[in-house]
Every structure is written in C-alpha cells, then in structure tokens.
Amino acid sequence: MAKRLITPRASLLAAVAAVALLTACGGDKGDKASQTAAKVNKEEITVHQINFVLQRQPGLKPEQAEAASRQVLERLVDQELAVQKAQEQKLDRDPRVVQQIEAAKREIIARAYVERVGESVAKPSKEEIAKYYADKPALFKERRIYSLQELQIEAKPEQFDAIRTKLSASKSLNEFIDYLKAGEFRFNGNQAVRAAEQLPLANLDAIAKLKDGDSVLSANPNGLTVLFLVGSRSQPVTEDQARPAIEAFLLNQRKTEVVQKDLKALRDGSKIEYVGKFAQPAAAASAPVLAPAAAASEAVAPVATPAPAASGLDPASISKGMGLK
Hints:
The chain is an alpha+beta fold and 325 residues long. It has two domains: 2-91, no CATH class; 120-263 and 295-325, no CATH class. Helix content is 50%, strand content 14%. The model is unreliable at 1-29, 285-315 and 318-325 (pLDDT under 50).
C-alpha cells in the first residue's frame, strides 16, 4: 500500500519534469528563454513557476499534467496582470500590504526552520508501529462505523437531574424527545455516520465502549449535550492497511516533540521581555467542564454521511483521525 501512495506523486513529478524538459528543448539560444512559458508585457512567467504550482496539487494524475500546466499558466498570467496593475497604483507600498508580505515571509522562513529541525527525526521501527496498532484496537482491529445522533438542550442547572433521570428511563430516543417537547425545552439535533478514524482520537476509546442504544450526557455552556449511539457495525483494519498511516502519525508526533524541545531551548537561551499590558499575567480562562466521552460529540456534523471503502480503511482516512494534515 505504501508503494501505491508514493507512486502517483513520483509519476506526477516525473511528468512535470518531462513538461519542463520538452519546453527546454529549443536549441542553444539561451537556457533562460527556453524556460519562459509566457511574457506579460515586460515580465516573464517561467516553467519553474508552473511546476512549483503543479507539485502542490494533491491527487493530480500524470496524464493530467499537460492540461493542468496550461490552466496554471493562465492563472499565473491573470496574477501577473493584477500584480503589474497593483504596482502601477503603488498598492505594493500600502502599509497593510507591506505588513502582510512581511508576515508571510516570516511564516515561510520559520516553517523552513521547523522542517529542518524535523529532518533529524528517525522513522518509527516496525516494532513501534506494531505496538501502536495493538494499543489502539478501537481504531484498527476493533474499528466500527458509528451512527450518531446529538441533542443540544437549553436547560438550567437545577433541571439537569430531572433530564438525566428521564434519559436513563427512556426506552428510545423518540421517547426522550417527546419528554423534552412536553417540558417545553428548547433543543436542536443533528446526526451523522462516522467511522472510528473520523472521531477525535482522545475520545475514541470512550465512544468505543458504548453499545448500540447507549447515550452520554454532559454539561455545555447553555445546558446539556446528549450523544446517542443509534447503531454501529464492525469494519476492522489490518496492520498492513494501517501501517503507512501509523508510521506517518508517529513520525509527525516525534517531529512535533523535537520542535517543541528545540523552541524551549531557544526560549531558555534568549532574553524575552514582555511590555505594556503583556507584561501582566494573563487572566485564567475558565474552560468548560465536559465528560471525556461527551466531548466526542463535537465530531458529529449536521449533514455528513461518509461511506468507508468496502475493502477497508485507507491510510489517508486514518491520518485524518489522528490529526495529520
């Protein structure tokens, strides 16, 4: 599977390189001219600019490279025309624009440093991947597809006990909803089908312990949140299927730890002085108190019913569930 994930990207890069090579085959009349894709007034757009954009397009197939390169070129032409007009109007000297350019520059440079720090991290071993797979049964070998319904109920603290008691006694969701209507509680609901990897990883184990028909109740700023597990079905994932995503997750986790450690060392070795109102300690923020299982209800979106592949879970989906981009 790992090979299947890598090959399209490599093939695309090869196709992009081939486009550049064909464009460059114009004889010995200057390499710079051979890399020019278009001229917009006195400015040039190069093949390198096109290739840079193409390489950042996910899912682009090799056979689409030629057509895509032409589409990218047209967008770059429009962009260049806009840039030239903006410069003519001296917008590039506007303080807000200058500030945005400087902020983008700093972000790019800082990201490059973070990536450089992360390059020293070693890939996880097969044993580490196997251990992670074994330690997360709800995500892999005991993976389920969950049909969830969520209710957001407006209620006062003194009403919580009565609602909780009725929820425990209700034989169905409809019976509980009828109770809310009779009591003139204001509430809204939504439902979704979610695979294990589409739920917050920190709350997955708690949801995995629920049986079909079970519910979880927790406090929220306006009242109570009730999460119902309407039903679920088993769809396990083998270690071979999960390995690429687990490797990516563990590697990303290691990089994050190394970067945080490096930044801490930089802070410790630097003189940082806060000025004005920032010199005062920040006021303690009051965080909402939610039960771990109930917090997973935040993953339920109003309208979304993704259908997992019949052959099992693909690494990209697992990566989403584990917070990878």
